[in-house]
Amino acid sequence: MTIGVTINSLPVINSSTSMYRDFGTSFIFVLIGIILVAVPLLLQRILSPRRKTAEKMSTYECGEDVEGPAWVKFNIRFYVIALIFIIFDVEVVFLFPWAVVYKELGLFAFVEMMIFLGILALGLAYVWRKGDLEWVKYSVPYGRGRYRKLTIIEETPASPAPAPQETAA
Amino acid sequence: MDIVTLIIICVKALVVFAAIMLTVMAMTLAERRISAFMQNRLGPNRVGPKGLLQPLADGIKFLMKEDVIPSGVDKPIFLLAPVMLIVPALMTFAIIPFGSELHLFGRAIQLQVADINIGVLYILALTSVGVYGIVLAGWSSNSKYPLLGGLRSSAQLISYELAMGLAIVSIILLAGSLRLNDIIIQQQGHFLSWNVFKQPLAFLIFVVAVYAETNRLPFDLTEAEQELVGGYHTEYSSIKFAMFYMAEYANMITASALTVTLFLGGWDIPLMNEAALGNLGVLLSVVSFVIKTALFLFIFIWVRWTFPRFRYDQLMRLGWKVMLPLALVNIFLTAGYLTLTV
User: Quick one: which of A57, A111, B59, B244 could link to B233 by a disulfide (CB 3.0–4.6 Å)?
Assistant: First the structure.
């Protein structure tokens, strides 16, 4: 059984079974990977000591008492970049089939894909110009207000405590 | 599929697996020894001749240590994370051709565990899965340092992966195929036919992306010992900790092999027709592949002691404002050149 492939340069898939076989083969490594993790875990269960204490089981925080859980709301700062990433990642997926048949199609493929790339590059330029690629988003409207507040807090000078190490010396 | 084919596949898988594991062990030692020589120290040299048995001793020590699972963790994910990291690294290696075609007992054996026709896409998909291992390890630990490590890992992913994919697109343009063997065959011939000479810009972008992908210096922000106490694996102990190390080295080996395949002609030896030499040529091709991969592994260690660590906003800026535009320009130039000449 052959899968019909119209364009000559594509690797002609001899039979669907060989394709399934090759994908299946790569799954041997899933099995090996799981064994690779499971066997040492089992060995370790037999060999290693187990003496649990409350302190040992507590979360690491440089020896301090733990201050609440780590699952808190967190400003990840690159949320917009993550969204742009998805768009561009899909673009890359579109580029792969284009690249495979490029030599067959010639100028037509070149012009068409450059229009596509051009539009996306325009999008990148827009995001760049708007300042969303910056870490500190001074030029982004929603960021600006936030940072203005922050600078006000920074401007009130905290009175520096007298250095204790000099008296100790 | 007859039984012999099945046996051949299993043997190849086991050989590749054994080779990766041995290289991982050798790398743990090599990393410490080479680091030591670069810093004018000796490094571990007591266990066995020249310290060669050190990785074995390390492994036994890891097994004998108590496995501490902190009480606050999300246990299923905590246990899944090492598997998520190590399996993609092994699976990627399954499709990398490590030698030309071997003829044995009237059978042609591809020196490659699985010859997948969409190889490059398969690799890109799996390398993205590998990042989940780090993110999940960081999140499930319920500790601040791993959380930051995991977050940085995702920031890293969205910064370098695009440039990496686009760098590969220009290779596909030249080869006209997603199969890794076709890409190697396209690079055969004399010395300058390797993609590293045809696509120097893509090579540069790809190598930088590979360093980010394997979390090695200068992009080891997810670990960053000095600030994050080991990052995503802070809460892991004993053998699970060792697994993260194994996964890191396995990733490095896979990444090196991939770089060699895509840019340095894979198992190809320049100015030589391996097929004419019969099985000796096959052996030489394997040796050539191993030497090239070892060279890249050495460069990994070399770079580690040469460059300081990037800050992660710097990494994001590099990815989005330098590497991505450069990769786009590179595609434009490659495609334009091909249109004009072909």
Answer: B244
